[in-house]
Specification:
about 375 residues, alpha+beta, 11 helices, single chain, 3-stranded antiparallel sheet, globular, 6-stranded mixed sheet, about 25% strand
Length: about 375
């Protein structure tokens, strides 16, 4: 397709750089034949289309964003509250996050930030307090709706180490059935799985299948978290890219689950195998990015020729960003922090590039294993 002016100006034909008569005649024949050009028999016929500039200028830009940003404010932990003179400088008003700059217990100025959703989870007695159920209804349910409509989706829990990402995603204790099913402490991921099978049981005239895989990215290497070996020994897996289906992990185990109980057990198994370690900022810091990938396939009727929908939802609990000088002492942990910060920096670059409206921009997916694997989702 070639883009040409809507009404070519004839001025050029009378200038010193006039087009030869043979070319001008061909141009007139081109306009008479409705932009159709005669070509030799050995070639296929070429149609030149001229876009309508006026119609294009009247097009409305879609203001609905596919990216939603939510912020959750947690209470101060024991370490923070034990420091003398520490006080909370964060406030929430509607969907605005207000951070106060203070000096000698006096407010100097307020900085206001706007987000799609702001969750205040500091004091339970507050009228605007947001519990685990509130966060799931606001963040998790739209993902589930998109999955049943056939769209891929991705949820990223991002923040500093110790900010409560794993609590929001999984719950108070990620490795115990009692806590992962608790109505109070259960996080987004187990609630998502529970609601998924609840909706599947309510389907009529449709068949559904669910596949799950759970893996971690540790030091830019991929480890399968659903290994059933008694002594979990992580083996690095390779990433390849299919020309149609996109990036995938070689030899990653994928399990078909038929009930919420089966999926819940896989979550607990993966959480037990995930790499965690104590740092100076968090006594149980996640040292890897964990990705729970749930693939939903819906088909109408029993006939294989009938149309269906296939969608993938990635629930990602990112490792915490941190300052290496203030959080680590051991050399191995410094190396871990370098890989974590590198992948988080690349993730920010990818999201920033995708949010830019300019065309033909290079998106650095391959600079990190995390962004490469999430290419189809982000």
């Amino acid at each position: 397709m070639f883009s040409t002016p809507e009404d070519p100006s004839p001025v050029g034909f009378n200038s010193n750089y006039a087009t030869p008569k043979s070319n001008s005649k061909a141009l007139r024949n081109l306009k008479k034949s409705h932009n159709s050009v005669d070509t030799p028999d050995c070639f296929s016929k070429v149609i030149l289309e001229t876009p309508n500039k006026r119609a294009r200028s009247k097009e409305k830009v879609d203001e609905v964003s596919n990216l939603i940003v939510a912020v959750r404010i947690r209470p101060m932990n024991l370490h923070e509250s034990s420091i003398a003179g520490v006080e909370n400088i964060v406030k929430v008003k509607n969907q605005e996050l207000i951070i106060s700059s203070m000096k000698n217990q006096h407010v100097i100025t307020d900085y206001v930030f706007n987000y799609d959703h702001v969750f205040w989870s500091v004091h339970e007695n507050d009228s605007v307090y947001a519990n685990q159920e509130d966060v799931f209804l606001t963040i998790g349910v739209p993902l589930l709706n998109n999955a049943f409509q056939g769209f891929n989706a991705c949820l990223l829990a991002y923040g500093q180490t110790g900010s409560g990402k794993s609590f929001s995603m999984m719950g108070k204790s990620m490795c115990e059935i009692e806590d992962i099913e608790s109505e109070v402490y259960s996080g987004i991921t187990p609630r998502f799985c529970r609601e998924l099978f609840k909706r599947i049981s309510e389907l009529k005239n449709s068949n559904a299948s669910v596949e799950v895989s759970y893996f971690q990215i540790y030091n830019e290497k991929i480890h399968d978290l659903l290994s059933t070996n008694a002594n979990f020994t992580p083996t690095p897996l390779k990433v390849r890219e299919h020309p149609v289906w996109g990036p995938y992990v070689v030899d990653l185990s994928t399990h078909i689950v038929k009930s919420y109980e089966e999926l819940r057990n896989f979550l607990i198994l993966g959480n037990r195998n995930r790499a965690t370690a104590a740092t100076l900022m968090n006594e149980k810091s996640s040292r890897s990015h964990s990705i729970c990938s749930i693939e939903l396939c819906l088909s109408n009727g029993l006939n294989e020729s009938n149309t269906g929908r296939r969608s993938k939802v990635n629930l990602v609990d990112l490792a915490g960003s941190e300052r290496l000088s203030s959080s680590h002492k051991k050399e191995d942990q410094i190396k871990e922090g370098m890989f974590i910060n590198k992948s988080l920096l690349t993730l920010g670059k990818v999201i920033s590039t995708l949010a830019d409206q300019r065309k033909n921009q290079f998106v650095p997916y391959r600079e990190s294993v995390l962004t490469w694997l999430l290419k189809v989702s982000v």
